[in-house]
């Protein structure tokens, strides 16, 4: 699978179709597998089976489309530029470069450019999120222990 940087904002008709399709598929959201019948505008039809996690992904895509958002599907092994990685982490590019230079996130250089695997960016984000939750839990316990009332 290759990633394509094609941005397509859904039209009003596509947004409405996504909304209707999302409601229909949502009835099957808890299923392990879903059997679907497809019929194209050319008259061809096929039956297929979707695993539950694929249905969840499809529901997410439809929900975003119904709100007028563009969607990107990126393989976990995809390499990102430093700006793309910084955007995913919601940090500045210089801050991300500092993380790379400290070794917090693995990267490689292609010429003078740094490339970061999406999987490594997501792993870093997960580690930071876990640390944040642990710190908040500690602060909550400490404030309750001290009787701070919140």
List descriptors.
Excisionase, 5 helices, 150 residues, DNA binding, 2 domains, alpha+beta, 3-stranded antiparallel sheet, Multidrug-efflux Transporter Regulator, Chain: A, Domain 2, extended, SinI_DNA-bd, HTH_17
Report what the structure shows.
- One of its GO terms (molecular function) is DNA binding.
- This is Excisionase.
- Residues 80-127 form the Helix-turn-helix domain.
- By secondary structure, the chain is of the alpha+beta class.
- It folds into two domains: 12-66, no CATH class; 79-145, Orthogonal Bundle (Multidrug-efflux Transporter Regulator, Chain: A, Domain 2).
- The protein has five helices and five strands; from the N terminus they run H-E-E-H-E-H-H-E-E-H.
- It has helices at 12-26, 52-66, 82-89, 93-102, 118-145; strands spanning 33-39, 45-51, 79-80, 108-110, 113-117.
- The longest helix has 28 residues, at 118-145.
Provide a concise account of the structure shown.
This protein is an alpha+beta fold and 150 residues long.
Biggest sheet record: 3 strands, antiparallel
Number of helices: 5
Strand order of the largest sheet: 3-5-4
Count of distinct structural domains: 2
Architecture (CATH level 2) name of the largest domain = Orthogonal Bundle
Beta-strand content bin: 15-25%
Oligomer: single chain
Form type = extended
CATH class wording of the largest domain: Mainly Alpha
Contiguous uncertain segments of 5+ residues: none
What is the typical, i.e. mean, pLDDT?
90
Cα(first) to Cα(last) distance is 49 Å
H/E element order? HEEHEHHEEH
Class inferred from helices and paired strands = alpha+beta
Radius of gyration computed on alpha carbons: 21 Å
